[in-house]
Design goal:
Keywords: Membrane, Transmembrane, Transmembrane helix. This protein has 339 residues and is α+β, with helices and mostly antiparallel strands. It has helices at residues 2-7, 83-99, 103-137, 140-158, 165-179, 217-232, 235-243, 245-254, 265-271, 279-289, 294-300, 308-312, 327-334, and strands at 11-17, 25-31, 35-39, 46-51, 56-57, 65-68, 77-80, 184-188, 196-198, 202-206. Helix content is 49%, strand content 14%.
Length: 339
C-alpha cells in the first residue's frame, strides 16, 4: 500500500501504558508493515506491535491523541503528540479502510448474485418444473380431455376416426385385451407409419394396420410399441412441453388448456414420431399382453435382419399365445372404416 510505504520510516515519541495499573513509559512509535511498533528508546527492544487496521483513536479531534490497539481493548493506551505521526496514522488508517470490501457494495453484489441465481432458476429450471408437475398431477379426466384435444388436431389432417357401430365393441375389446381396462384404440381412415399413444389413454392407428391383415397381431405389435414409448415418455408431458409453461401453469390453476395451446401438435406427431422404445421394454409388454413379437418384427422388416432381437427373444417362441380376437370380432374390426 502506498500510504504504508510513505510512512514506514516515520518515528515519533509517545507515552505507553500497558495496563491501568502499569506505569506510563516513553516509547518510540514507528510505522511497520501494517503495524505500529512501540519500542523502548533505551534498549531498542520492541515492547508491542499494534495492527494498524485495528487501532482505534479514543479521543478524535483532541490532543494528545489517545489510541488503543483495538475497539475492545481500552486498558492498553498510547498517547501521541506529534502532529505528523497523528496525521500518518490517520492517513494509513483511511487507506486501509478504503481497501476493505465495502459492506454496501458487498451486500449489493450478494443481492445481484442471488438475483442472477433466481433468474437462472426462473428461466432454466422453473418452466420445465411447471410442465413436469402439471403432467404428474393431472387426473384421469383431465388427461382424457387433453387426449381428445390432440385427437381432434390429428383428425383435422387425416379425417375423423372411424366409428362404425358394429365394430366399436371389437375395437374396445381389442384395446382392453392388450393394455387393460380404460384403454381405447382410435382407427383413422388413412395410412400411418406408426401407432401414436395419446393421453387418455387412447392409441391412434391407421386403417392399414387392420385392413388386409390376416390376424390382429401386427396391429397389436404397433399398439404395444406405442405403449412402450408412452411408458418411457409420458405423452401428457410431451404435449404440455409443446404447449409451453404458460399453458401448463394455466392447466394447474384453472384445470384446462386454452383452445390454441396445442395448435399444430397433431401435425407434429404425424410428421415426427418419437424414437422407438428399446427391445427389452417392448418384449415385456408383448409377454404381459400374451402376444408374439414375431408378426410385428416381420412387419417392420420382412427379412428379419433389423428386428432379429424381437424375433429371437419372442416370449412365445415355443408356445402358442391365446387369440386376441375371435374371427367374428376381427372381421368386424377390419370393417370399422367401411361406409
Amino acid at each position: 500500500m502506498t500510504a504504508l510505504n510513505q510512512y514506514q520510516r516515520l518515528e515519533a515519541v509517545g507515552t505507553w501504558r500497558e495496563t491501568p495499573k502499569s506505569q506510563r513509559r516513553d516509547v518510540i512509535v514507528s510505522v511497520g508493515d501494517a503495524t505500529l511498533v512501540l519500542t523502548d528508546p533505551r534498549s531498542d527492544i520492541p515492547l508491542a506491535h499494534w495492527s494498524l487496521p485495528a487501532v482505534v483513536r479514543l479521543n478524535p479531534g483532541k490532543r494528545p491523541a489517545l489510541y488503543s490497539p483495538g475497539a475492545g481493548d481500552v486498558d492498553e493506551k498510547l498517547e501521541v503528540e506529534d502532529d505528523l505521526m497523528i496525521a500518518a496514522i490517520e492517513k494509513v488508517h483511511r487507506a486501509i479502510d478504503a481497501s476493505r470490501p465495502n459492506s454496501g457494495r458487498m451486500r449489493a453484489s450478494l443481492l445481484l448474485s442471488l438475483g442472477a441465481v433466481c433468474l437462472f432458476a426462473a428461466v432454466i429450471w422453473l418452466p420445465p418444473a411447471i410442465v413436469n408437475h402439471a403432467a404428474q398431477v393431472a387426473p384421469p379426466a383431465q388427461r382424457s380431455e387433453i387426449g381428445q384435444m390432440i385427437l381432434g388436431e390429428i383428425e383435422q389432417i387425416t379425417g375423423n376416426a372411424c366409428q362404425r357401430p358394429a365394430a366399436s365393441a371389437a375395437a374396445r375389446d381389442f384395446a382392453e385385451r392388450l393394455l387393460g381396462p380404460g384403454h381405447r384404440v382410435a382407427v383413422l381412415p388413412t395410412k400411418l407409419d406408426e401407432a401414436i399413444r395419446l393421453p387418455g389413454p387412447v392409441t391412434v392407428i391407421g386403417s392399414d394396420l387392420i385392413s388386409g391383415q390376416h390376424s390382429p397381431e401386427v396391429a397389436a405389435g404397433y399398439i404395444l410399441a406405442a405403449e412402450a414409448i408412452a411408458r418411457r415418455d409420458d405423452p401428457l408431458f410431451t404435449a404440455l412441453r409443446f404447449a409451453g409453461p404458460r399453458a401448463a401453469f394455466h392447466l394447474l390453476t384453472s384445470g384446462d388448456l386454452t383452445r390454441d395451446a396445442l395448435d399444430g401438435y397433431g401435425e407434429r406427431l404425424l410428421k415426427s414420431p418419437p424414437a422407438p422404445a428399446d427391445d427389452e421394454r417392448l418384449l415385456k409388454l408383448f409377454e404381459q399382453a400374451g402376444v408374439s413379437s414375431v408378426p410385428y418384427a416381420r412387419a417392420l422388416d420382412p427379412t428379419g435382419e433389423a428386428t432379429l432381437g424381437l424375433i429371437e427373444a419372442d416370449p412365445f417362441r415355443t408356445a402358442l399365445p391365446a387369440a386376441l380376437l375371435d374371427d367374428r370380432e376381427w372381421v368386424a374390426l377390419q370393417q370399422i372404416c367401411d361406409e
